[in-house]
Amino acid sequence: MSLLSVHDLAVARGGLRTVEGVSFTLAPGQALILRGPNGIGKTTLLRTVAGLQPPVMGRIEMPDDAVAYAAHADGLKGALSVTENLVFWAEVFGGGDISAALAAMDLTALADRPAAALSAGQKRRLGLARLLVARRPLWVLDEPTVSLDAASVARFADTVRGHLAGGGAALIATHIDLGLEARVLDLTPFRARTDSTARPAGFNEAFA
Amino acid sequence: MIALLRRDLRLAVRAGGGFGLGVAFFLILCALVPFGVGPDTSALQPIAAGILWLGALLACLLSLDRIFALDHEDGSLDLLATSPLPLEGAVAVKALAHWITTGLPLIVAAPLFGILLHLPAAAIPALLMSLLLGTPALSMLGAFGAAVTVGLRRGGLLLSLLVLPLYIPTLIFGTEMIRRGQDGGDTMPPLLFLAGITAGTLAVIPFAAAAALRVNLR
């Protein structure tokens, strides 16, 4: 039983294919690290898996409402406090207790601080705390450790380990070593050939 | 969805949220008109209905680009699109939040501004009714324009150009209703047209705007 299976996937950004022919599966308890040079299409691949854009080719199979997506932007409102931000996402995802998520990301002391007054690393921790309240089995993470200090990276790696131990799975694009027992998929060999067509079915030039 | 409505309302009343900006703009516009055309009742009364509705239109337009642009910038829109919340529902809720923070204060303040423009007391019920029925359509159509232009730099101007023509039917029947109220005519036909336009936008716009958002999120 796999949580996510990707078959012969090709993705495009701005009308240009980035990677093609990517296949992998993720079972509960597994993590997969995506690597590759800048611009290879890691973010595009993750957005496609998260359902934010359609694949050019190939299939993505997973249960409905399985993905919790975290990208470069944390989706925080500066005018709201840390607690208010997290409670909002907990309510949207029908998730539960935010105090455990705050504790896991070491944000308890900052709970009443407006999000605008947080440092970049603290914001990132709040963005990652959202994953814990979303209660989704598949984490799709795009460079989750940007602007985190070493202690926070270790803390985050522990959180991912806990998620995997609880039957979840994670698909992570990152350049640093998180110390996870995870397979690594280097996207470099899957770089799209320049002569292949980038147009998805029903592609409309006006929206490129 | 209630959580989203609560969040949007809370954001609107917090610092920098722009709550009250629309009413303040409406007030300035209605206060400036007598300076422009002269303070005589004979000059102001015939144009009062039109000025009030134009003011409502422009005040509504001021805050439209905030409906989705801010959520797009900070990544919330991506997260909402991957959440269990249907995007259509999110559009409807965000338009509702816009109406509560912009349309509703306008309706409350409109009788006062009517006095500034020498609108006769007999026309006040028609004014209130026309705004109550018409402004939800303004927020809905605006949400559609905001969804189409989300992610564009300087999308605000394009948004105005897209949305203002869509406001024309509401403007026509809104002012006609006040005018008939002023002259003691039958306000029912324009009222029904206004209600029909609003009901139509409420039914169609969430789907159209959600489709536009999905395209823009790619």
From TrEMBL, chain A:
<keyword id="KW-1278">Translocase</keyword>
<dbReference type="InterPro" id="IPR027417">
    <property type="entry name" value="P-loop_NTPase"/>
</dbReference>
<keyword id="KW-0472">Membrane</keyword>
<dbReference type="GO" id="GO:0022857">
    <property type="term" value="F:transmembrane transporter activity"/>
</dbReference>
<dbReference type="InterPro" id="IPR017871">
    <property type="entry name" value="ABC_transporter-like_CS"/>
</dbReference>
<dbReference type="InterPro" id="IPR003593">
    <property type="entry name" value="AAA+_ATPase"/>
</dbReference>
<feature type="domain" description="ABC transporter">
    <location>
        <begin position="4"/>
        <end position="206"/>
    </location>
</feature>
<protein>
    <submittedName>
        <fullName>Heme ABC exporter ATP-binding protein CcmA</fullName>
    </submittedName>
</protein>
<keyword id="KW-0067">ATP-binding</keyword>
<keyword id="KW-0547">Nucleotide-binding</keyword>
<keyword id="KW-0813">Transport</keyword>
<dbReference type="InterPro" id="IPR005895">
    <property type="entry name" value="ABC_transptr_haem_export_CcmA"/>
</dbReference>
<dbReference type="InterPro" id="IPR003439">
    <property type="entry name" value="ABC_transporter-like_ATP-bd"/>
</dbReference>
<dbReference type="GO" id="GO:0016887">
    <property type="term" value="F:ATP hydrolysis activity"/>
</dbReference>
<dbReference type="GO" id="GO:0017004">
    <property type="term" value="P:cytochrome complex assembly"/>
</dbReference>
<keyword id="KW-0201">Cytochrome c-type biogenesis</keyword>
<dbReference type="GO" id="GO:0005524">
    <property type="term" value="F:ATP binding"/>
</dbReference>
<dbReference type="Pfam" id="PF00005">
    <property type="entry name" value="ABC_tran"/>
</dbReference>
TrEMBL record, chain B:
<dbReference type="GO" id="GO:1903607">
    <property type="term" value="P:cytochrome c biosynthetic process"/>
</dbReference>
<dbReference type="Pfam" id="PF03379">
    <property type="entry name" value="CcmB"/>
</dbReference>
<keyword id="KW-1133">Transmembrane helix</keyword>
<dbReference type="InterPro" id="IPR026031">
    <property type="entry name" value="Cyt_c_CcmB_bac"/>
</dbReference>
<keyword id="KW-0812">Transmembrane</keyword>
<protein>
    <recommendedName>
        <fullName>Heme exporter protein B</fullName>
    </recommendedName>
</protein>
<feature type="transmembrane region" description="Helical">
    <location>
        <begin position="123"/>
        <end position="150"/>
    </location>
</feature>
<feature type="transmembrane region" description="Helical">
    <location>
        <begin position="96"/>
        <end position="117"/>
    </location>
</feature>
<dbReference type="GO" id="GO:0005886">
    <property type="term" value="C:plasma membrane"/>
</dbReference>
<keyword id="KW-0472">Membrane</keyword>
<feature type="transmembrane region" description="Helical">
    <location>
        <begin position="43"/>
        <end position="64"/>
    </location>
</feature>
<keyword id="KW-1003">Cell membrane</keyword>
<keyword id="KW-0997">Cell inner membrane</keyword>
<feature type="transmembrane region" description="Helical">
    <location>
        <begin position="157"/>
        <end position="178"/>
    </location>
</feature>
<keyword id="KW-0201">Cytochrome c-type biogenesis</keyword>
<feature type="transmembrane region" description="Helical">
    <location>
        <begin position="190"/>
        <end position="213"/>
    </location>
</feature>
<keyword id="KW-0813">Transport</keyword>
<dbReference type="GO" id="GO:0017004">
    <property type="term" value="P:cytochrome complex assembly"/>
</dbReference>
<comment type="similarity">
    <text>Belongs to the CcmB/CycW/HelB family.</text>
</comment>
<dbReference type="InterPro" id="IPR003544">
    <property type="entry name" value="Cyt_c_biogenesis_CcmB"/>
</dbReference>
<feature type="transmembrane region" description="Helical">
    <location>
        <begin position="12"/>
        <end position="37"/>
    </location>
</feature>
<dbReference type="GO" id="GO:0015232">
    <property type="term" value="F:heme transmembrane transporter activity"/>
</dbReference>
